[in-house]
Specification:
The complex is a heterodimer. By secondary structure, chain A is mainly beta. In chain A, 13% of the residues lie in helices and 46% in strands. In chain A, strands 1, 3, 5, 6, 7, 8 and 10 form a 7-stranded antiparallel β-sheet that branches. In chain A, strands 9-4-11 form a 3-stranded antiparallel β-sheet, with no helix packed on it. Chain B is built from 2 helices and 12 strands; from the N terminus they run H-E-E-E-E-E-E-E-E-E-E-E-H-E. Classes of the chains: A mainly beta, B mainly beta. Chains A and B meet through helix 1, strand 1, strand 2, strand 3 and strand 10 of A and helix 1 and strand 1 of B.
Chain lengths: 159, 186
């Protein structure tokens, strides 16, 4: 019975897929995001920059999409926290992989760009963008001792 | 058999829908949360950093005592800045001269003149703690909030040469020494 249901679902999906193009919703996918750890900040004299190559797919032929980051923030700044102490970080987004800088991201503010991936809908083994995380020396140098953490959600939407 | 070109976009979209339905392409779980294919796709990452205990001493100045009268003690005061990033902002300080066994001495060749070192955790202190050569002090509390010491000074350093020692010095000779201050966060 479960196999019959799966086949029925696939058939319904095929019917939907073959519907006129105007009725198909544009699909997007974000994959290959990884946690980012700065480790112990032994050097407070230089900015620390870490990057994460990610994959963005869109079914749009133009490859256009919007990226929005949200997380623990204070105003226009993302924060890591340790108890009552805060450590500001900066996020940037590059629309190609292996970059060390990109367009600055502000909390909940969308940034638009283009992905080269309009075919690989499972993002298998393909990186198309870079998330850049920066910890400035000016913030690191005066930070209170402790273990800081935070989380960031990266949302991809059609554009 | 070759698919008609007009069907290719539809087939591609169908494949994407199959992925949405979970009928293919399972991805192993990882620390971060991956997005799912859909009208929107959201991934979530965790960021972390560890800041060690740190301290900094700044705003120190060289001391030059020139043509001093030996009839009274000569006292040199200065007002450094100390920053500690611990929860209590406390620190300990160790003073080392460059004499034998870290003695607090100025020298001209084999001639030596001793001096004393005192410390206070305030730039307006009237009470000082005497520092023993190469012996870590008790706890002091810093008030500087930034390592750059931009908000002013929060400590006092006092170096004293007694009148008796001044009188033992050979006139016109220059005696020199180095005082090292080691601050450790607590």
């Amino acid at each position: 019975m479960s196999r019959l249901r799966a086949r029925l679902a696939a058939g319904l999906a095929l019917a939907a897929a073959l519907a006129p193009a105007q009725a198909r919703a544009q699909l997007v996918l974000l994959k290959q995001v990884t946690d980012i750890g700065f480790g112990t900040l032994t050097n407070s004299n230089a900015d620390r920059v870490l990057t994460d190559n990610v994959c963005v797919y869109t079914s749009s032929a133009t490859g256009r999409y919007r990226v929005t980051a949200t997380g623990t923030s204070s105003g226009s700044t993302f924060m890591l926290t340790s108890g009552g102490n805060q450590l500001p970080i900066e996020l940037q987004w590059a629309f190609s992989p292996n970059q060390t800088s990109g367009t600055p991201l502000a909390p909940s503010v969308a940034v638009a760009g283009i992905t080269s991936n309009t075919h690989n809908f499972i993002c298998q083994g393909q990186a198309t963008a870079t998330l850049v995380v920066i910890l400035r020396a000016t913030q690191n140098g005066s930070a209170r001792a402790g273990s800081y953490s935070g989380s960031v959600s990266i949302r991809i939407a059609p554009n | 058999m070759t698919l008609p070109a007009s069907l290719v976009p539809a087939i591609r979209h169908l494949a994407a829908l199959l992925a949405t339905a979970g009928l293919c392409c399972a991805v192993p779980a990882a620390g971060a949360t991956q997005g799912s294919i859909g009208a929107n796709s959201t991934g979530r990452i965790t960021l972390s950093a560890s800041v060690p205990a740190r301290a900094r001493i700044g705003n120190l100045s060289d001391i030059a005592l020139t043509n001093v009268s030996p009839t009274a003690n000569v006292v040199a005061n200065q007002f450094p800045c100390v920053w500690s990033n611990t929860a209590t902002r406390r620190y300990r300080i160790t003073a080392r001269g460059n004499g034998a066994s870290f003695a607090f001495t100025l020298a001209n060749g084999t001639r030596r003149v001793p001096y004393t070192v005192q410390w206070a955790a305030s730039a307006t202190a009237t009470t000082f703690t005497s520092l023993t050569r190469n012996v870590q002090s008790g706890l002091f509390t810093a008030s500087s909030l930034t390592s750059g010491c931009t908000a002013g000074n929060d400590a006092s350093l006092r170096v004293t040469i007694t009148a008796a020692n001044l009188q033992a010095m050979v006139g016109t000779l220059v005696y020199q020494g180095t005082l090292t201050l080691i601050v450790v966060p607590q």
